[in-house]
Amino acid sequence: MSQFAFIFPGQGSQKVGMGSDLVENFQIAREVFDNADSSLGRSISQLCFEGPEEELRQTENTQLAILTCSVAILRILTLSGIIPRFVAGHSLGEYSALVASDVIELSDALRLVSARAQFMAESGEEQDGTMAAILGMETEILQQYCDSVDGIVKIANYNCPGQLVISGEVVAVKQVIDLAAKDIGSRRCRLLPVSGAFHSPLMESAQVKFQDVLDTVTLNSPKIDIVMNVTGELATEPEDIRSLLFQQITAPVQWEKTLNTMASSGIDNYLEVGPGKVLSGLVKRTYPDSTCMNVEDLNTISLVLDEYGNGR
């Protein structure tokens, strides 16, 4: 079998019911959700399983829910002997990757993500910010548009060839959309349903507050190679990882570069570990000849165990 990587989704992939069939069929999944409920002092499991959807979509809940569900799936896979060569996660998903590589314990990941989500939500309330997806445009041209308008707007996600996300002040973002739409058509530019301008300078207040919490957590050297968002490159030293987690709140997500780093090391198979298929789509757009299976429920886990189980 070719070498493979685990990739972990970020905010936006959540859905009511996620994880419910896992806890009914795998004791290790139930232990992860119980651990999360105990660590957080509230039932994130009930929110995942039953909603309501409006509450699950709130940043303070979404990030914790996706982390918990992703780690539950991770534990099922690793218990079955499925160990990747690389791990990486998109934005929030980086914390699932850190758990997968044993850089942090799940309890510490929950504490960090709880603080991160709270501070990001607060920054979103303080600053009138938003994000937008821009499809089919060259990076250099979009950067020129961002530089040409008044106000703060930056490229926040370099997702894959032809798929970029901008983030910043609402008026500035809409101005860039208008400019981009004249080139590529308005159907290929759309505002995203987010509560703030994530991965932009508008998150600086969240970043400052997050530093104090981040400094209290012990980070270990990765046991599995991990590729980080800010650089799109491997990180091996705990203090380098700490610095990159701090930077990640305001820095763009270099996801295309992340995939390039893994592909250059021979990775051509990926497992998207967590709810949704967003990252699977980005992999296929970047490397059409690669394979990516999403693992999110009992059915997809069964397929993956048949394909990769027992260390095959």
Explain this structure to me?
The chain has 312 residues and is of the alpha/beta class. Helix content is 51%, strand content 16%. The protein is built from 14 helices and ten strands. A six-stranded mixed β-sheet has the order 8-7-2-1-9-10, with helices on both faces. Strands 4-5-3-6 form a four-stranded antiparallel β-sheet. The N and C termini lie close together (7 Å).
Task: State the helical fraction.
Answer: 40-55%
Mean pLDDT: 94
User: Main sheet: which strands, in order across?
Assistant: 8-7-2-1-9-10
The string of secondary-structure elements, in order, is EHHHHHEHHEHEEHEHEEHHEHEH
* Number of helices, counting only DSSP H or I runs of 4 residues or more: 14
Topology:
Layout: E1 4-8, H1 20-25, H2 27-40, H3 44-50, H4 53-56, H5 59-79, E2 86-89, H6 93-100, H7 106-126, E3 129-135, H8 139-148, E4 153-160, E5 163-169, H9 170-184, E6 189-191, H10 204-214, E7 225-227, E8 234-235, H11 238-248, H12 255-264, E9 269-273, H13 278-286, E10 291-295, H14 298-308
Parallel strand pairs: 1-2, 1-9, 2-7, 9-10
Antiparallel strand pairs: 3-5, 3-6, 4-5, 7-8
